[in-house]
Amino acid sequence: MIAVKNLSRYFDKFKAVDGLSFDIKAGDIVGFLGPNGAGKSTTMKMLTGFLPASEGTIHINDADISKHSKSVQKIIGYLPEGAPAYGDMTVYQFLLFIAQIRELKGKRKHERIAEVVAQLELQAVLDRPIDNLSKGFKRRVGLAQAIIHDPKILILDEPTDGLDPNQKHQVRKLIQGLSEDKIVIISTHILEEVAAVCNRVMIIADGALKFDDTPLALQQKSRFYQSVSLTMSYAADISGLAELDGVDDMEVDRKTGRVTLFPEPGAHILPQVAEHIQLRRLPVEDLHVDQGRLDDVFREITASKESV
Amino acid sequence: MRNIWIITKREFSSFFATPVAYVFIAIFLMLSSIFTFFIGNLFERGQADLLPFFNFHPWLYLFLVPAIAMRTWAEERKSGSIELLMTLPVSVGEAVMGKFFAAWGVLALALALTFPLWLTVSYLGAPDNGIIIAAYVGSWLMAGAFLAISMCMSAMTKNQVVAFILAIVVCFLFVVSGSGIVLDAFQHWADNAVIDTVASFSFLTHFESMAKGVLALNDVGYFLITMGVWLYASLVIIEQKKAD
Description:
Chain A has ten helices and 14 strands. Chain A is α/β, with parallel strands linked by helices. The two termini of chain A are 36 Å apart. The two termini of chain B are 28 Å apart. Classes of the chains: A alpha/beta, B mainly alpha. The interface between A and B is medium-sized, with 29 and 21 residues.
């Protein structure tokens, strides 16, 4: 359980985080979204006790992080931005060091190392110095050290940056496979990732919380959510489409001839549209229901301040 | 305590995972022998002691200790691994001590590897072994003071070269603070108490009797306090600057 109240952080005069308040409960997999420099990493650094807050409080399991940072850090696993590690150590030495600091002992220590090595498929590079590894392996070593003590709270700053699609998939599976009583906070630029693994989205821009709800709610904010687009093999009379029940607006792309029908909020227009097509025998070649365009919503939310 | 030991082990092996420790030890052994035989005239003196060897230690440490200490914090901050270290359940104090003991251990090893010199004088004559052991201990304590200063300088910057140069300058001031180089700056305006205090900071003065095998409480105390003060200063600096 994480409780953040009025959290602010200044760097000299620059306000990186501005009065954030939120609660995160066990079972939440939170996606932190925001443009570069929005304050995501700064917030994560404060949640992990690396940076002190300028104002406000962070309570983790009812313990104030500014007073009990050591005991709080024991239950947090953290992958800092860029997955820093001690490059001169081999992967095994590094994981052993982290396991020792994390107070894993004896048999359990070796079991856990073997488990995370298997989970992140690090067997092949176990005896190679971390400096000599590819970006993808470095990131996975960083992930391995973050989960080695099976933490209650897992904070990952851009965990899939630099990974190829297969590795991204693997990391998402890993996050989804964590038990349900854990808190996971992921920051990312990749919007699909949030829809794929998170059950809660927070959008931060200019240091302030702009959106906090489920990924579905984020999609629903899109004008394209449940919109129907269709292409026809030759020109036909489409005027009737715009008059259908529940259709709010119709747009036609002059170049491609693609027709997009926007529903009224909350309406599902596919049945009506399909019926209309049948009735008029429209030469529809391709029909597609949009799930909402996250990048549009993202731009709208994060840029709203500038346009005002 | 446990965390200090784990960090010490990590740092110590990291010195040997890179060429740092090997180069340091090799250069230390070479230079200390050159000084002892060619400048200190160990043979020509005709005395079975290691005074010519120990007398050069402040000057050797002046350049070599900053070299071994410059990466301790500067590199950690540059690579970002400090963020990892400081979010592990480790206090800053434990990290400072762990790193210090590791580098001090390397210095101890380098000193220990000068044992052939001891064998040489033992072969040539009958040196007072108690004096030699005391001088080794004194030299190691002084090395610790150099190290604490250099590590503090390393905590102040992300740039290893800057850390190295700053450390040499500050160490140099401490080495020569008993001589005119530093005291002249105080001569005209400060009263005698101030000048005496500054002069008493001198590493050379405190090491002088140690090199002869006299471990006086005030000299030992001086180096221990110097270490404590500079290590505490690095702790404060790291707390302040870790995220910059």
